[in-house]
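During the no-cost extension, the postdoctoral fellow (Dr. R.K.) reprocessed legacy sequence entries with the updated structure-token encoder. One reprocessed record is reproduced below for audit purposes.
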Amino acid sequence: MDDPSSPPTLPPEASDERKRAGSLSEPTEPLGQDDVWVPTTPAASPGSAAGEALRALAHVARSFMLYDATNERIRGFLEDARAKIEHFLKTHGQMRLEVRPWDFVLGGDVVYSDKDRERSLAFRLYRDGVRRLTLHPDLEWTELIILIGILSIRYKGVRTQEDDVVTLLWRADFKHIEVVAVEGLVASEGDAVDLPSPSDGKAAGPRDAMQAMVFDAPYGFTYPWPNWTERATVERRAVPPSLLGRITQEEGTQVLPLECLQLARELLAGLSDPHDPLTLGEVTPVLYELRGFLVGDLCVEALLAMARMVHGMPGIDDDTRRELLVACVGEDVVRRLTVAVDFADEEALAAVTAIAELAPGDHTSTLLDLFTSSPRYQDSPAVRRLLESQLKGRTGAVVERLGALDPTVAIELFRLLARANPAGSVDAAITLLGRPEPAAQLEALRLLETAEYGGKIGRALVGALASESSNVRLRSLAILVRQRERRAFEPILNRIKLGAAEVGTAETSAGGEAMARLDPEKALSAFKEWVRPSGLLGRLSPGQTGLRSAAVSGLALLPGPESEELLQWLARHAGDELSQQCDLALARLRGNREDRRG
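Re-encoded structure tokens follow.
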């Protein structure tokens, strides 16, 4: 470039960028050792160091499209670019770059390459005519800021009155930046070109420089407009129905979700871009925006596809994957979909269930809050199915709530848990058995009857013997007898003694049979005392009839002369009802004896 006689001024756009960048780039305090970029490999090759510096330069210039000039991130990007460029200049001397359509070349080696014409710094410089860019070791910070401001203007490219890069660089009057430029990109049809001769003798490949440039350009390259020499009359033609259908489909409701997925796919691919990788802080805000749109329009299938895309990403650590999944499908997404989606569609229900399985967070608590808050959600098949899918292995979350819920809600929640995880529902059943409501206790006993028996269940059943419900007491007693729980003998004995005057004959009889089955020797000793109590007070006790009824039922299961003698004596001295019970017990004993003899 020719040096002008007087220092030119930047155009208004570049001046504005210079002011904004300058306000961010000149910190109030000098940068410390911890504030600047420190190369991880001090002995890195010039090509590697130049590549890092150029990617940082492109990054900060492109960041003005995403962030306001006063954003704190801009300052960080500026400091990163400054540190890497200064490191190269101090270590390797001047940076003499050859500018190609998609690459920067240093000393014959490609140090920067980007085929994306929207992102490529090399393309934007080459398009405006820059062919060589040299940064000298004495480069000043102010000059670097002005260069970044010029590059950021070309990245934005929204003002039609702006000048090209060459003009802006010429007006900047750099002292330590050297630029070599040409007039433009378009080649002339008459330019000579070194064309390889076809091996098969057929005419192939470009015929001149114009065609060579077009043939070598990547797909999607903006070709120069041809010179139109023919004229024709404009005619109105009917658009074929097939084309109209495709156009309508492009503007339909399914297009935007597909475009969201395409953008998400490109963002995730940018995280592993070897030339200019995106950072997690740049990707997640956009994913949050995509999520907001998809949730607002209830695009459940697209949300699931985006979550699966992140879940299946290779080459990232668990923390990064979790942060990306939260940006795509967080806890609030599961809640909003559960409330808003019409689950009459089985596919939508399956999609939301799959999203809940992929989304990080405690969805069990979210769904439990919904289920316990209103009958509307308790009756909702969607909420019930989603909650059931989340309850496997989460018994503790249910147990914590069962004791304080309304009994009806507690029973429904317990049934969901029992269906989702029968083997893991014992603790919940024991908690439900400890509630005072008979309906809740009976629901718990239904599960404990079939559960694998253990000491924890036995203690809970013994505690249920004190229930206010006779049905609960009898059912608990039957389970204890079936499990041959001898440790329950004393509690059963004490329960019969204390409640003999209050409970019915059926319960006292069941208690006597239970004692005889669990420990016959101790039972016979207790039955003797109950049939022939010692002392006048024992005979006149209000519960004596109940105790004798329990003894008669138990003695019927204890063969031997002592049992028969006690039953015969009691039949002669008791009232009519108890005498009849004794006769039946004796008949049962004698029948069992005859069966054994036969």
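Residues 12-181 form one domain. Residues 445 and 475 are 8 Å apart (CA to CA). The remaining legacy entries will be reprocessed before the final report is submitted.
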